[in-house]
Structure formats: C-alpha cells, structure tokens
C-alpha cells in the first residue's frame, strides 16, 4: 500500500525519430516539432517535443511502475513551463500528495526537470485509481 509522501523518479529522453513517430500517431505535424529550419525562425530556435508526448511518460509510469500495473490513470493537469528538446535527459518525479481510500484513488504530483540544469520544465497533478494499492 502506498502512503502520502511516497515518491518515484525516472530519467527519460526522446529522439527526433520518436518525435516524428508521434507526429504520425497524433496527426500533429506542426513544423515546430520536426522542421529544424522552421523552428530556427521561432523563439525556441530548434524543434520542441510535443507536450502530449512528454505527458506520455506520466501514463507509462502510473500504468507500469508507480503505482503500477492494475492502475487506472484517471486525470492529469499539467503546466508546461519551458520547452523540452530532443536528446536531452529529463527526470520525471512523482509524489503521492493525497489518498482517498474509499475510492481507491490517489493524487500524484507529476513534475519534469531538466536533469543537468535542475530546472522545472513541467508541473502538474495526476490521479490514479488502484484498489490494491490505495
């Protein structure tokens, strides 16, 4: 059983090929994500990763690792504070902030940091349900 304060961390990065695959899967072909020439003309200066692709790390962790298999990922609220780029190592951090034992749900803080610089890139809260773990 999990308790308030329990936490989990995972490092991740995405390649440009993975971003391009996500363009195909999602249908979001905004050139800001795949066209280096286009992105160079913007405030970002190079292609940025889709926010939904970054948030997919939250789904992976909640469904497979923390709280893990058998969990249902119910909701997510995220604030994307800074752009994320390909081939950069990021660290996703998860922390249980509340538990409703009657509904078998937990609110889990979901954050992404630039691992090298320590800057907060994404800040949010997700909710998961798991009858065996909450």
UniProtKB/TrEMBL annotation:
InterPro entries: HotDog_dom_sf, MaoC-like_dom, UPF0336/Enoyl-CoA_hydratase. GO terms for biological process: fatty acid biosynthetic process. Pfam families: MaoC_dehydratas. GO terms for molecular function: (3R)-hydroxyacyl-[acyl-carrier-protein] dehydratase activity. Residues 11-105 form the MaoC-like domain. CDD domains: R_hydratase (cd03449). This is MaoC family dehydratase. It comes from Aquirufa rosea.
